[in-house]
Design a protein that fits this description.
This protein has about 170 residues and is an alpha/beta fold. Helices cover about 45% and strands about 15% of the residues. A four-stranded mixed β-sheet has the order 1-2-4-3, sandwiched between helices. The longest helix has 23 residues. InterPro entries: MetalPrtase_cat_dom_sf_prd, YbeY, YbeY_CS.
Length: about 170
């Protein structure tokens, strides 16, 4: 597992307490970072890079989404890299920010028939991969990113979020 210095802020929504969010985030982000480091065959920097996680509500993420992406609607997760990275690049001292909206995650988890914590885990991985330059705008990019998400989630004991097959 690769180390990341995770800073958490809870600004809205009915999130679990900070200690529970930090424990889950550290486990998930550590697994994702470790997977990326193994995939690239190089360790993370000696000094752990910093990651900011903001846990908020739909109203707040809607305002951020409108301001930064021109989309006046809530979304589940937003990622803002501190520095542009291409897939495979190693990070500098600051990774960036991941913002998650409680109501949207709760609603989506219900629609998917998944526990909230599993959906949160998936979106933490998803947001983290965006900080490393992975995207899903084009079909080939989406396949690569979804494959990475599926492998990382599998390492965490979760099923493929894009398919129907449970982890064996």
């Amino acid at each position: 597992m690769s180390e990341i210095d995770i800073q958490i802020s809870i600004e809205g929504g009915a999130w679990p307490d900070e200690a529970a969010l930090l424990a889950q985030s550290a486990r998930v982000i550590g697994a994702a970072a470790g997977h990326l480091a193994r995939q690239e065959g190089q360790p993370f920097p000696k000094r752990p890079p910093e990651l900011s996680l903001l846990f908020t509500d739909d109203a707040s993420i809607r305002a951020i989404n409108a301001e930064w992406r021109g989309q006046d609607k809530p979304t589940n997760v937003l990622s803002f890299p501190a520095f542009p990275l291409a897939p495979g690049d190693m990070p500098g001292p600051m990774l960036g920010d991941i913002i998650l909206a409680h109501e949207t995650l709760q609603r989506e988890a219900g629609e998917l028939g998944k526990p909230f914590d599993e959906h949160l885990t998936h979106l933490l991985v998803h947001g983290f991969l965006h900080l490393f330059g992975y995207d899903h705008m084009e079909t080939d990019e989406a396949e690569e990113m979804e494959g990475l998400e599926t492998r990382i989630l599998g390492e965490l004991g979760l099923s493929d979020p894009y398919g129907d097959d449970p982890v064996q």
